[in-house]
């Protein structure tokens, strides 16, 4: 005791001579060092061999948040090399267990309802944006019914109407937009694709009247809603911060606009209308309750928001990749000439099936640039990971990253090469797993919103799998292929410096997208 006092005596004397600011600084530094030491000791001395290995990290709470957040795919690949397909990392203080590879995708995405839960994770972000009683602000069984209602407006019959609508929106956008005046020019493409996406989706899914309001107030309101989807809101969704206030105001205003429209339509029924709102207005839950107006309004917001980020990011990547490979853009143009004739008649839904390279462009872009890089679930009871000795406790969050298997050389030769032709017959880079190519053979299951493939053995799942699988896949394909076909008819793209380079990815928001500005050079095929 005396020896310690001898040791600490001079130090504590020096400490007391410091000013208050310096004392706080020294105290904080000592606390930091102590917490780092305890954190490292805990990782090295108290390993639980029945739980997945924990990614080494110096600081508690921060854990691997920064390395994960900067580049999630790289983080997953690096940790996979060290720890295998199943490992845990600390993300903002929460132990997050990642399960990779087709088996990992299956384990997380096809998890049983009593084992895993999406709404507990996502509701803090989505409920203030979409509104009450829909998607993740209701029991899962109700979401399954809501997905069934929404899917009714996403049929082949509906897509037949959507293709000309989308085509018109794209061509009229390029006619009226100042950045595309003249014969050639340079433009940062992502903001343009974001506008094209919202115009095409709102017109097709929500009708002409709603679409017209996107030229006025709605675009700004949806932008404010969008701000609610920032990662910081996983923690501060409740805080009276300026962007959260704007989010709440926008949610109330947009919902009221839809509810007023519903009231008007109920007063003057349109017999031939077959749009999303019409279908939702005529839907009844299994318990006999008609879908209330506020739920219809909130589902309309949810659908548009769900599609916006993913389709806008994907179409931006497609345009940037085409600019990096003008030869493939020419292949697309030739495909249309060969399949539809040299006069290129107005595009119809049936034409899309005659344009396999257009389909492959979308598929291959989603393989390398799926907008949703991490899918999360709460763990409801201790989960044994098949084929391992690991049990994941309920204190962990479960994470799936299907992008990892989609860029694994085991399944995709030359995985980092953007090669749309790999999805067409006789390609040397064809997916090596037959099942990756042929979803038709997949085991199908109905969670309450129609048959979907389980995707259990597929390394390629950009639209997810299981009960939370995307219902917008076909719409997104129709929308993206139509946009690509119209752009290819109008323009030739290349990189400004003529290289094959492709810009990096921005992971700062919840959905990955190209870094901006992402400038391409465009040239009209015909004289303006
Ligand atoms: C769910 C991807 C477009 C509506 C999902 C999920 C993924 C995904 C990965 C699963 C999320 C999870 O398991 O937690 C994509 C991609 C798109 C796209 C890559 C475009 C390229 C759309 C569009 C719509 C839409 C256009 C609407 C028309 C939905 C809905 C869900 C969903 C309603 C269900 C959420 C749930 O059940 O929890 N999407 N999506 N998506 N998506 Fe999409």
UniProtKB/TrEMBL annotation:
Annotated CDD domains? CYP51-like
Q: What are the record keywords, sorted?
A: Heme, Iron, Membrane, Metal-binding, Monooxygenase, Oxidoreductase, Transmembrane, Transmembrane helix
Tell me the domain of life: Eukaryota
Query: Any transmembrane segments, and where?
Result: 20-42, 54-70
A molecular function GO annotation:
sterol 14-demethylase activity
Enzyme Commission no: 1.14.14.154
Q: Which cofactor does it need?
A: heme
For this chain, the family text in UniProt reads: Belongs to the cytochrome P450 family.
Protein name as it appears in the record: Lanosterol 14-alpha-demethylase
Annotated organism of origin:
Sporothrix eucalyptigena
- Upper taxonomic classification of the species? Eukaryota, Fungi, Dikarya, Ascomycota, Pezizomycotina
């Amino acid at each position: 005791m005396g020896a310690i006092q001898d040791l600490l005596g001079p130090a504590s004397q020096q400490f007391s001579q410091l000013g208050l600011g310096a004392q706080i600084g020294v105290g904080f530094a000592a606390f930091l060092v102590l917490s780092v030491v305890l954190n490292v000791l805990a990782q090295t001395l108290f390993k639980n061999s029945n739980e997945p290995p924990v990614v080494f990290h110096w600081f508690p709470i921060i854990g691997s948040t920064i390395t994960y957040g900067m580049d999630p795919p790289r983080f997953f690949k690096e940790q996979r090399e060290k720890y295998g397909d199943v490992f845990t990392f600390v993300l903002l203080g929460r132990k997050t267990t990642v399960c990779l590879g087709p088996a990992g995708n299956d384990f997380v995405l096809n998890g049983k309802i009593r084992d895993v839960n999406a709404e507990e994770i996502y509701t803090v972000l989505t409920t203030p944006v979409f509104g009450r009683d829909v998607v993740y602000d209701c029991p899962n069984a109700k979401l399954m019914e809501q997905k069934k209602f929404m899917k009714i407006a996403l049929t082949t019959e509906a897509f037949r109407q959507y293709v000309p609508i989308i085509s018109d929106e794209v061509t009229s956008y390029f006619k009226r937009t100042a950045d595309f005046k003249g014969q050639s020019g340079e433009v940062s493409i992502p903001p343009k694709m974001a506008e094209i996406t919202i115009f095409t989706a709102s017109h097709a899914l929500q009708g002409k009247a709603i679409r017209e309001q996107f030229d006025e107030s709605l675009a700004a309101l949806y932008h404010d809603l969008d701000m609610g989807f920032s990662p910081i809101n996983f923690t501060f969704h409740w805080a009276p911060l300026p962007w959260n206030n704007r989010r709440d105001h926008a949610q109330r205003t947009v919902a009221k606009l839809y509810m007023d429209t519903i009231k008007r339509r109920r007063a003057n029924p349109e017999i031939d209308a077959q749009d999303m709102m019409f279908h939702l207005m005529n839907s009844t839950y299994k318990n006999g309750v008609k879908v209330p107006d506020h739920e219809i309004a909130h589902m309309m917001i949810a659908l548009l928001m769900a599609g916006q980020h993913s389709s806008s990011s994907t179409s931006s990547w497609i345009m940037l990749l085409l600019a990096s490979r003008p030869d493939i853009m020419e292949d697309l143009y030739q495909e249309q000439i060969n399949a539809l004739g040299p006069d290129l008649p107005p595009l119809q839904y049936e034409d899309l099936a005659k344009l396999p390279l257009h389909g492959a462009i979308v598929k291959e872009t989603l393989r390398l640039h799926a907008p949703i890089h991490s899918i999360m679930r709460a763990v409801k009871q201790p989960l044994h990971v098949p084929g391992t000795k690991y049990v994941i406790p309920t204190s962990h969050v479960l994470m799936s990253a299907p992008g990892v298997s989609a860029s694994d050389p085991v399944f995709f030769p030359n995985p980092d090469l953007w090669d749309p032709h790999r999805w067409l017959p006789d390609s040397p880079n064809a997916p090596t797993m037959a099942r990756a190519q042929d979803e038709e053979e997949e085991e199908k299951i109905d969670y309450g919103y129609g048959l979907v493939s389980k995707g259990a053995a597929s390394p390629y799942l950009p639209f997810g799998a299981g009960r939370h699988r995307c219902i917008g896949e076909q719409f997104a394909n129709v929308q993206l292929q139509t946009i690509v076909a119209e752009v290819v008819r109008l323009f030739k793209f290349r990189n400004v410096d003529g290289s094959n380079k492709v810009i990096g990815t921005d992971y700062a928001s919840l959905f990955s997208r190209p870094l901006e500005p992402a400038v391409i050079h465009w040239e009209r095929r015909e004289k303006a």
